[in-house]
Design goal:
This protein is an alpha/beta fold and about 350 residues long. It folds into 2 domains: about 240 residues, Dihydropteroate synthase-like (TIM Barrel); about 100 residues, Sulfite Reductase Hemoprotein, domain 1 (2-Layer Sandwich). About 40% of the residues lie in helices and about 20% in strands. Helix 6 links the parallel strand 7 and strand 8. The longest helix has 21 residues. About 45% of the residues are buried. Bound molecules: iron/sulfur cluster. The site of iron/sulfur cluster (SF4) has 12 residues, from loops.
């Protein structure tokens, strides 16, 4: 499954709860809840939904002490490692550590002085947890608003390195790095500069990327470049949408460049006047109904399923896949291993395809 023609950078291996990132481990897919973390039950409910679709690490924002007191309750009710996102008040980070958080993410632009970083490092070391230095161009004084391109990227990387120096001075190296700007050019250049100086695992993301449509395109373009460079140990696709969509996009992106498998690859045609039925609806229903089949994520390579709008290219594509279906508005021909298996009535396509995916043996 892993790509042969480009090499991932050899970063330091770091454990976040029971997930290892860096050092060639599979790129871990993460998301962030958008519930009120003072309401721990609703937050747990959303994390469980994220677990269902394959989220491997989850971050919650802790805006105040009340939310930090919930960390333990949330952790007890979920299976994946929990990360706390802290801004402004380091005491919230200390409480999260006390409550058993698996990792903290701090923003060096607003967490405070070197003394405060020292206090956090001391507690993180005692608790054996990791820390992400999550630098955002928008919140750093050193990254001037009017600078652009390489200059801005350099400022972002240098500011991050300065914070890393503080952590290293205190012999703390369980560090994960992100350097985000909302434009791709600055972000990519900043990651490249940082990666040439240190080998800490990189958390990739394009911040404030936008809606499902524009955010997916922007994130895929930016992350695609960095992944192709061999950079990245964990990633979050930031979308103004249900976080479940972030996981679906992340798997799809990594699968498209053969870095991870979502377990399923659907090949479908764009449709044209030869297509006499609602193929778009069928494909999205199959995607929806298979998104939470956990066994799929464990497959070493994705099951390739072709769902085609007519018999012109349909049977050909379907034959190339593990199985496929192609047909007209009344029925479809179901193919497996290049052989026609049966005719399936139009109304039964989704049910048939989903059940074949569930029963598929490698
Ligand atoms: S497979 Fe058929 S329906 Fe789909 S785009 Fe090609 S010709 Fe059109």
């Amino acid at each position: 499954m892993f790509m042969k023609f480009y090499k991932r950078s050899q970063t330091k291996k770091i454990n976040i709860g029971n997930v290892t990132i860096g050092g060639g481990s599979p790129i871990a897919i993460q998301s962030m809840t958008n519930t009120d973390s003072r309401d721990w039950k609703t937050t747990v409910k959303q994390i469980k939904q994220l677990e269902e679709v394959g989220c491997e690490l989850v971050r919650i924002s802790l805006p105040d002490m009340e939310s930090a007191y919930n960390v333990n309750k949330i952790k007890k009710n979920i299976k994946i490692p929990l990360i706390a996102d802290i801004h402004f008040d380091y005491r919230i980070a200390l409480e999260a550590i006390k409550q058993g958080i698996d990792k903290i993410r701090i923003n060096p632009g607003n967490i405070g002085s070197e003394d405060i970083l020292e206090i956090l490092v001391k507690e993180a070391k005692k608790a054996h947890i990791s820390m992400r230095i999550g630098t955002n161009a928008g919140s750093l004084k050193e990254v001037h608003k009017n600078s652009s391109g390489l200059l801005r990227a350099k400022a972002l990387a240098i500011a991050t390195l300065e914070r890393v120096n503080v952590l290293e001075k205190h012999n703390f190296e369980d560090i994960i790095i992100s350097l985000k700007a909302s434009d791709i050019d600055t972000t990519v250049q900043a990651y490249r500069i940082f990666a040439s100086k240190r080998n800490y695992p990189l958390h990739l993301g394009i911040t404030e990327a936008g809606s499902i449509f524009s955010g997916t395109i922007k994130s895929s373009a930016g992350l695609g470049i960095m992944l192709y460079d061999g950079l990245g140990d964990t990633l979050r696709i930031s979308l103004t949408a249900d976080p479940i969509e972030e996981i679906r996009v992340a798997y799809s992106l990594l699968q498209s460049i053969k870095l991870r498998s979502s377990g399923l690859e659907i090949i479908s045609c764009p449709t044209c006047s030869r297509c006499h039925f609602d193929l778009i609806k069928i494909v999205s229903k199959v995607e929806e109904q298979t998104a939470s089949i956990k066994e799929l994520k464990k497959k070493s390579k994705p099951i390739k399923v072709a769902i085609m709008g007519c018999i012109v290219n349909g049977p050909g594509e379907a034959r190339e896949a593990d199985f496929g279906i192609a047909g007209n508005g009344k029925y479809g021909l179901l193919f497996k291993n290049g052989e026609i298996l049966e005719k399936v009535k139009y109304g039964c396509w989704v049910k048939k395809i989903v059940s074949m995916i569930k029963d598929f043996q490698e």
